[in-house]
Specification:
7-stranded mixed sheet; 7 strands; alpha/beta; Rossmann fold
Length: about 240
Amino acid sequence: MSDTSDTPEPPQRAWRNFYGRRHGKTLRSNQRDHLDTDLAALSPGPVEWDENPERTPLDLATRFPGREVWLEIGFGGGEHMVHQAATHPQVALIGCEPFINGVAMLLGKLRAAGVDNVAVHPGDVRDLFDVLPTASIARAFLLYPDPWPKKRHHRRRFVTPEHLAPLARVMRPGAILRVATDIPDYVRQTLVEVPRAGFEWLAETPADWRAPWDDWISTRYEQKALREGRPPHYLTFRRV
């Protein structure tokens, strides 16, 4: 009988609360076709627990040979992600979005744009963080995240240690984190929590957070915020 006492136990699946929607209105037939036809080929690799129970790190060098990797957390309808992919064809982008209607919208935009430097994880970004290699991400985007406006729900926001600690682990030194929001209290929490996680805020003048980035494209959500009189804030951080 062999001694297996030194055999490491496989990682235990993390139990995580999920807040928010995974499904919205009924998908159109062409959107269902995009999901059935395109989504599997866009996978960054085995992320879900049932396909990667050992939580083996993704092989990004093989998946995206010769390219640095950027990450968009919660890409919504995909406008910004497609724009970045087309503007920066030399990089690879991984987009993470649990709302399946948004994923379907992105897939339609990818078909129309003809970009091929994108991967998609249609699920919780925390599961993706589990399998991203340490210091593998060169740039990350957190654009108009769910504000969870009630004070008792602020712990659900992305800018909390539960999310920021693994984000900091996967970002390489000098990597850039961009955060856009129109919610003043979200700005305050971001400026408190993100530096605590190992980032420095790069603003030197008010223009540095009032003006969008040079390669920015205004999203539908931003246009709604502007119509309703909520000015956006564009916050840039660097991993230290």
